[in-house]
């Protein structure tokens, strides 16, 4: 009799314990099982270049607070690359930037974002990203090539800015009225400098000395006509200079 009572009591205690455990879990007393977020559909859709599928598949991963950090980075990188391929540059930069905040060791991604900045015309940010990629991986071939090209481009732009609005001659020694007019006008000054540089290039690339001398005579004759024509009725200095530059550079820009 006693043993039967003990069995019934044990069963009641066990049932009570199970009930309390269920109630405790229902109220948040114990951590619920973590649901694994599947990043595979996002990666597959992005790799297949399927914007429609990737849009929903990647969003379900990226917008889910339970997504593991590594999977979130993968989804952001994949969607960013997809946006880039479809020329959605701002969206691609946004995804790449978020991924780099989570993992700032991705040299490939810094280089990719640098190329996107180039598409937007933001050369300083592009150089910064190429440099960041090289800090992480000094042997990153694409980043090295991009950084070198951009450094040369920025140097060229800097050189152009240094001489912008300055003609090929020293304005302090300008004596002719036409020379003073060129010095007083940035556009004319730039045209004069471009004509001088294009003529020098043409002479340097001449096939023989005779051709080089002929090219220089043509330039000298232009200067004589320019000096004589300036100030006369109907003479358009700007047009005359533009025509000379076009002749030097050729129809295709040389």
Number of strands: 0
DSSP strand content: under 5%
Based on Cα principal axes, name the global outline.
elongated
Structural class: mainly alpha
- What sequence of helices (H) and strands (E) makes up the elements? HHHHHHHHHHHH
Report the end-to-end length measured between terminal Cα atoms: 113 Å
Indicate the low-confidence ranges by residue numbers. Answer: 1-27
Number of helices: 12
Mean pLDDT: 84
Largest pleated sheet:
none
Percent helix:
over 70%
Q: Oligomer, anyone?
A: single chain
Q: Overview of this structure, please?
A:
This protein has 254 residues and is mostly helical. Helices cover 74% and strands 0% of the residues. The chain contains twelve helices and no strands. It has helices at 2-26, 40-47, 51-62, 69-85, 89-102, 107-120, 123-136, 141-163, 177-184, 186-204, 209-229, 237-249. Helix 7 runs antiparallel to helix 8 and helix 9 packs across helix 10 (186-204). The longest helix is centred in the N-terminal third of the chain and has 25 residues, at 2-26. It is elongated, with a radius of gyration of 36 Å. The protein starts with a helix and ends in a 5-residue tail after the last helix.
